[in-house]
Write a structure and sequence with these properties.
Layout (H helix, E strand, L loop, with lengths): L10 E5 L2 E5 L6 H12 L3 E6 L10 H7 L4 H4 L3 H12 L4 H11 L5 H7 L3 E8 L11 E4 L6 H8 L4 E5 L9 H4 L21
Parallel strand pairs: 3-4, 3-6, 4-5
Antiparallel strand pairs: 1-2
């Protein structure tokens, strides 16, 4: 999918005391996370249900284009570092984050961008496809390979979290019965360790 074709088309819903935000392209969760974290002044565990892990290195596809396909230049992370520094200046400005996301973040890079921005502390993923970029995941459950989904979910819920669902996970009717309903229980969470940038 071409970057210029990615759309936000954000729609907000409220169900009881839960706010649900729907976006068309997955990278546009970043302004939502910026808005939410700026209001609460904390970061959250991300629990995501997605066909793919969506942990491509941050700004990598933009850098590849900016370096005219020169992998050595793109892998030097000079371009990515410049973009990241600009992002951090606008960390909690959802409008600016949306503008920048439209330019620099592809649909499968948002998790590591959110992690590096301080929106998410760690991430748990229920997925069907373990990608090459999965080394960043400490916690993942691959449908068809791993067992004991209830224990995985129980562990994921031990911290305050944001739930992220990509509808590409549901490519058959049977998939709807495999996903456990997440509880409404919330826990206090504090994160004090220094973050290492994951490019």
């Amino acid at each position: 999918m071409k970057q210029e074709n990615l759309q936000n088309n954000r729609v907000d819903y409220v169900f009881g005391n839960k706010k649900v935000v729907v976006v068309e392209s997955h990278n546009f969760v970043l302004p939502v996370w910026a808005e939410y974290c700026s209001n609460t002044k904390q970061e959250y565990r991300l629990v995501t249900i997605d066909y793919h892990m969506d942990t491509r290195p941050i700004f990598s596809q933009y850098a590849y284009k900016a370096c005219n396909g020169d992998l050595v230049k793109a892998d030097s992370y000079v371009v990515q570092k410049e973009i990241y520094d600009t992002y951090m200046k606008h960390q909690y400005n959802p409008r600016k984050i949306e503008e920048m996301t439209r330019l620099y973040v592809f649909h499968d890079e948002h998790i590591l961008v959110g992690y590096n921005m301080g929106y998410i502390s760690d991430f748990y993923c229920v997925c069907k496809d373990r990608e090459d970029f999965s080394e960043y995941y400490k916690h993942y459950f691959v449908v068809g390979e791993d067992e004991n989904l209830p224990n995985f979910i129980k562990e994921a819920q031990k911290e305050k979290y944001m739930l992220d669902i990509d509808l590409d996970f549901f490519n058959s009717e049977g998939d709807f019965t495999r996903v456990t309903v997440w509880s409404n229980k919330r826990h206090r969470y504090h994160y004090n360790s220094k973050r290492t940038l994951l490019f």
